[in-house]
Amino acid sequence: MRWSAARGGGLGLAAMIYVLVDYLRNVSPMWHERLQPLLWSLLALVAITRVPFYRHWNAEFRAAFPFLASIIFMLSALLFEALSVRFVTAVLGLDWHSDTHPLPDTGQWLLLALNEKLPEAVVEILRAHIIGLHHFLMLFIMLAFSVLFDSVKAPGLGLGARYMFTMAIGRLLRAVTFVSTILPSARPWCASARFSIPGHPHHWAQKYYVPYASDANAIRQVIQQDIAYAGTSKYLDDYRPDWGSMSFLIDFLRPTPSEGSSWYNLLKKAGGGCNDLLYSGHMLVAVLTAMAWTEAHGGFSSALIWLLVMHSAQREIRERHHYTVDCIVAIYVGILLWKMTGFVWSAKDRTRDSRLTKLGKIQGRLLQAAKDSDMDEVRELLKDVELGNQESPKKGSSKVMWLFACGTIFFSLTIVVLAFTWTSDG
Fold first, then answer.
1. Which of 145, 298, 381, 402 is 20 to 30 A from 413 (CA-CA)?
2. What is the pTM for the complete model shown?
3. Where along the chain do its domains lie?
4. Cα–Cα distance measured from residue 301 to residue 13, given in angstroms and rounded to the nearest whole number
5. What whole-number distance in Å separates Cα of residue 139 and Cα of residue 46?
């Protein structure tokens, strides 16, 4: 019991050490450059040394296919999201981004008011870049790898599959949400600084939006007639590169000559977009990490991670990356989605429920054997219940399992490196 508690506490301690070491990049870059690679290497080495003692490779093997399927699903969702981000950024043109005022946000007002009331030290803590997207990803990766120490219920690939599957659903819902109603950014200069898009609206917007954007009489008439009655005599044309079979994307992405001839490279520049993307993708990742940590591990460290989620939320609002509504919606959507995907992986001990179910089925035989004082029959029935809930050994040689174990660790560590490389800038 003490060893189990120590392992659980060790996971939380390792997580907090990682966050603190990474924060050194803002305090002492020199020490950050020294300590971060050392910490990463130490964590990887400790995980690798636990591989020979891990007893649940059979469960990991069964979870491998759902894990890979979740990766493909998530990558597909991210591609759709990138297309949607570029579309909502480009469809109204660069002039709209520059001229449209941000929406009033009472959350921003509240934080500015608190800056005047709270002690300066507290305000500086709230402003500090303590936690970011890559931190939450790392916290989840540490959680998944902790199955090697029996700190979290196996399989780790099952936990990873649930995390990515839930995130993919959240990303799809997010893309459908922000592409449905285009909202102005809380940072009006963002689009001109990051994107090279035409200044004028796309011809879809020229026909269906521009004539009815500000004229109250025009809006009233389009409501009454329910038809785009204000015809535009001539639409401004867009640049149309030769993308071959992908040319259908031109109307959605609106490329310019300066952005090159590859639609894929254009999508990579989408980033987080420059509209308000309801809801916050960063907060979705943060909440899913906190939910996974709470269910799989629990304890005091889970409360600390939720505090980091709240700190990240107020920073998103304070720095005007998102409106307050984006963070609030991301929090409850993330919680609800995680609750809905328990069928992929769950920390609950299903063997207990299965054992009770099997006991219920043999209850009559068990009672009869007890009445007959047939202890051999009682022992045999109970043995069947116990064996029926044990993990059946995977057929195949131990060499195959060792190859699978090594491949899984190598693949997982590769994903870790790629995740940090691609998200290190937030």
1. 298
2. 0.84
3. 57-195+269-348, 352-388
4. 8
5. 16
